[in-house]
Amino acid sequence: MSHAEPLKISQLATATGASTETIRYYEQEGLLPPPARSASNYRLYGDEHIKRLQFIRHCRSLDMALDEIRQLLSLRDAPDANCGGVNRLLDVHIEHVATRIQELQSLRSQLEQLRAQCGDTRPARQCGILLELDRSD
After folding, report:
1. Are 12 and 49 in contact (CB under 8 A)?
2. pLDDT tens, position by position, 18-72
3. Distance, CA of 108 to CA of 117 (rounded, Å)
4. Alpha carbon distances (Å) from 130 to 74, 114, 121
């Protein structure tokens, strides 16, 4: 996707599927370089903003934290550097995902046990789920 004309923030949002608030946030966080400004002070974005924002959004779709994305961007911005840092970052992220999977499986089990507390419809004051959630131990 190549744009000869600079894009305003709303056009960048449309082109990438990101909200304008997200774009501003990524700018504040230093993930997107500051855009040029028009004579009337509108932000003006170019192709590199589109590519960078697509990269960020792809990383976010992989559940990467902003600090991880920041590290990947710094490595992306140094194309002649060794990519060992990328490998290490992904290895750590994979471990993080594995831990989250275990936590989510445990959560599912807890929810299933809670759901088993009330097998049929009854008045809310007798609901096994609500009574269990009210317990303070």
Report:
1. yes
2. 999 999 999 999 999 999 998 898 889 999 999 999 999 999 999 999 999 999 9
3. 15
4. 49, 9, 12
The model carries a pTM of 0.78
Domain boundaries, the chain: 1-79, 82-137
**pLDDT at residue 13 greater than cutoff 60:** yes
pLDDT of residue 103: 97
Fold of the domain spanning 1-79: Multidrug-efflux Transporter Regulator; Chain: A; Domain 2 (1.10.1660)
CA dist., res. 92 & res. 98, Å (int): 10
The helix or strand, by DSSP H or E, that contains position 86, with its residue range, turns out to be: helix 84-115
What CA–CA distance (Å, rounded) separates 29 from 31?
6
Contact predicate 7/15, CB 8 Å = yes
Q: How far is the C-alpha of 29 from the C-alpha of 66, rounded, in Å?
A: 9
Name the nearest CA neighbour of 89 among 103, 105, 69, 107: 69
CB 46 within 8 A of CB 6: yes
Residue 43: phi and psi, rounded to 5, are -70, 135
